[in-house]
Amino acid sequence: MRLPVLLTLLFALLFAGQAQASERIHQFDAEIQVRTDGDVIVTETITLTAEHYQVSRGIFRDLPRYYLAETGEKFRYGYDVLNVTRNGEQEPYKTLSDGNAFQIRIGDADKLLPKGQQQTYKIRYRVKNQVRYFDDHDELMWNVTGDYWGFPIDASQATIILPQGVQPTFLKGYTGAYGESGSDYTASHNGNVALFSLTKGLKLREGFTIAVGLPKGAIDPPSAADKGAILWQRYAGLGLLLLSVLGVFGFYFFSWQKVGKDAARLPVYPRYHPPKKLSPIAAHYVFFRTLKNNDGLIGTLMDLAVKGFLSLKVEKKKVTLTKTDPPRNTQLPGHERKFYNAILKNSNRSRTLGEGYDADFASALSTMNTSIQKTYGDDYFRWNTGYMAIAIFASVSFFIIAAFLTLNWTVWHFVITGVLVVINLAFFYFLPAQTAKGEKLRSEIAGFRLYLETAEKDVLNAAEVHGDKPPPMSKDRYEALLPFAMALGVEKPWSKYFEKVLPEEARDYDPSWNRGGRLAGATLASFSHSVSSGISSGVSTAAVRPSSGSSSSGGGFSGGGGGGGGGGGW
What we know:
By secondary structure, this protein is of the alpha+beta class. Helices cover 38% and strands 24% of the residues. β11 (131-133) and β12 (137-143) form a beta hairpin. α3 (280-288) packs antiparallel against α4 (295-306) and α11 packs antiparallel against α12. The protein is elongated. The chain crosses the membrane at residues 235-255, 386-405, 411-431.
């Protein structure tokens, strides 16, 4: 019998100790002084016992950062912490902002509170513009305790001190969880002082809210400064976005006037030969103003093949390059020569592209592309990226600041942000500028491309352009210009022209550089297109490093008015 009795006593002592050590607010009192300018000065006196469960070094008081106006708009509360004491002595604190909470964190991280001893904290702070104005009266509604404390509150009392000579017109209170309208309180007033007291304690997540009616005119209406502060919160972000639109547009416009105007456009008429000393990839870059897809590279490989430097075996998704001996004194542009020597060295007379990433080929291609971009860069076409970078940085910076200032996003915020985006996109097109030198070369390339693209039309074949007749078509001419046709994306109409003018030679065409064979019955246009597609597939695989990555899956109510929030210990 003794063992069960002993165990019962031990459990009773354990639960009694836990009950005794549970932390709670013994008393939460608030004194609220209402000033004639509508501000309130709040003094909260909070008494509790630190049991080192939640409260070890101090407490924190969370106050709401924002409130909803009658219009449904969100505005910031204006807090000014005046003083914090513990047991009548100054206590260290700091203020933090976290989400919707303005937190007053009280205590010293290096000091523990005496365990089991009662502590009395007094927090004094000012809040701006807490009086609400109606047609026939004014009103103060204040959430005395807040609804989000980490422990229960045994008792609470609120003392409202109105300006001298002002008496309340009504007193109301609300208790319970947020949104409830309990009436567990008493209220009375003596002159300009109103007193509210709870008649029973508050459980976790319950609060105590009071409302005091004031005679109309007893409190001054919001000042110009107060109205200005509201206007700032309402329109500062929108105004900054609007200024950013004007500023960024102005910057772009004056930059365009300075560096963004294209040289005068030159007429484009068919030309029967490529510009002198211009390679297929260079023609591609100057005409398209970028290295588009793999067309420039395809033109380069085809140029090397046509000139006898290599043979091509094109399959569905890969291509094999084999080094061959070109005719004596055959010349190559410098960037083509370096590229050729890099991909087909003396020790490696064959290279297959399309079986996986090829670092040597990718490096050689990158070197050739960089050479083309430098050779035909700013002297031919100015991208003016520095100006665009400044405008983009300004746009993003303005947007971030505006987003920080904006509490209530409206359709106008989205419209003006959209306008800012459109301005940037528009000047991405308008700000780059063709130089006179670039325009001259590009118009020549455009005329040559026009010939390659439209040569099959009889009207062109019979025409004289500036007194110059098209050269007669032949297998050698077709083959010599095919690299340019591929680089400029017009190999199909160029091949059709060859088929139309010389159908027998086109049908029997079997170039010496081709090691892949030609399907019986296939047209020359389809053959040239399949060669281009096969080369593109192979070089894409060889030149692009495979990416790696990972993913993972996995009327009134309690809580209304100013004040509120909650708190806890730390």
